[in-house]
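Here is this case:
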Amino acid sequence: MSNVSRKIAKKYRYLFYGFLSLSVFSGTGFWLLRNFAMVEGDFGPESHFLQYPFLQLHGLAAFLMLMALGSIFTSHVSKTWTLGKAKKSGITLLSFIVFSLLSAYSLYYLVAEDWHTLLGNSHAVVGLILPSLLLFHIKMARKGRKHKQKYNHKKLKHRAQ
């Protein structure tokens, strides 16, 4: 495990960021169209014609994001777990991702119509919070890294004297 870096390779980070952005954009678009863009059809209110393509794009983006997350999980999480840096924000981030996964699966296959709106809105809120949680997690990790570098620099300076 020592040959695995704590720092995530740029290509995986950028893939994850891109797929997360696409997932948030398409999910938000789907949610807005579903809740606020019903159109009047020949037989009453109908879904907006872009609603289903947004949902399809959202599903694809979420699937690709999870693949990128898998590559991050196998290296970054296993290497940094024992260090304890940004562990709470990482656990929170991972919990929100797991909730998103389970709620998406439930929306498709498990939940009765009575619960569909509540779970769908919860899924949307968590999805909108995810990018902020990710930024917070990154900020906390960098803050911890800078603190450690500063501490090590002082330690080396003290030894030199």
